[in-house]
């Protein structure tokens, strides 16, 4: 990235009111809290209807005809909660720049039910994802990220 673009972005982020930056950071905390509480309705409420999923990996729900990116994401995480019924999620660190929030999410749970086609192993697993969320009016409007799927699969199958 060019230095002038980076400096312009950092300058814009500093110019944002502290309340706007705090609200953006709160979205990452609310994301983790809703999943930890297994409150899929609260989780769904974090996403704008026009939400766009930019992640292209095994950790992202594939586009489904007739289903919005928001609904596909909510369904994906509902399946994660079903497979890991004691799932707990933390967000740390959380970094805010402009309307973007970057966070490392750590997922911990027991594989007590089928998880994306993998029979329950009873194993306690932990995996991370590093995500960038674009936030507008307190809602997630876009996502980019990467999850440690290889590490997760090693724990599930290992």
Could you characterize the architecture of this molecule?
- This protein is of the alpha+beta class.
- The chain has five helices and five strands, in the order H-H-H-E-H-E-E-E-E-H.
- It has a single domain, classed as Nuclear Transport Factor 2, Chain: A, CATH 3.10.450.50.
- Helices cover 39% and strands 32% of the residues.
- Strands 1-5-4-3-2 form a five-stranded mixed beta sheet.
Shape: globular
In the CATH hierarchy, the third-tier topology is known as Nuclear Transport Factor 2, Chain: A
Average pLDDT rating:
86
Terminal CA distance: 39 Å
Quote the beta fraction: 25-35%
| Total domain units | 1
Number of strands: 5
Quick recap:
The chain has 158 residues and is α+β, with helices and mostly antiparallel strands.
Question: Tags for this entry?
Answer:
158 residues; alpha+beta; Nuclear Transport Factor 2, Chain: A; five-stranded mixed sheet; globular
List the SSEs and their pairings.
Elements (H helix, E strand, L loop, with lengths): L2 H13 L2 H19 L3 H5 L2 E7 L15 H15 L4 E10 L2 E11 L13 E13 L2 E9 L1 H9 L1
Parallel strand pairs: 1-5
Antiparallel strand pairs: 2-3, 3-4, 4-5
């Amino acid at each position: 990235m060019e230095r002038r673009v980076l400096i312009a972005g950092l300058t814009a982020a500093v110019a944002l009111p502290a309340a706007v930056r705090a609200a953006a950071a709160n979205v990452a905390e609310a994301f983790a809290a809703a999943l930890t509480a297994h409150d899929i309705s609260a989780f769904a409420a974090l996403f704008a209807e026009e939400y766009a999923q930019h992640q292209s990996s095994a950790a992202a729900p594939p586009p489904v005809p007739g289903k919005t990116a928001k609904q596909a994401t909510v369904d994906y995480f509902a399946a994660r909660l079903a497979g890991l019924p004691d799932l707990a999620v933390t967000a740390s660190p959380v970094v805010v720049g402009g309307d973007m929030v970057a966070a490392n999410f750590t997922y911990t749970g027991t594989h007590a039910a089928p998880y994306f086609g993998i029979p329950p192993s009873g194993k306690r697993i932990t995996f991370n994802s590093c995500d960038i969320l674009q936030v507008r009016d307190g809602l997630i409007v876009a996502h980019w990220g990467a999850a440690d799927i290889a590490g997760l699969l090693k724990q599930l199958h290992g």
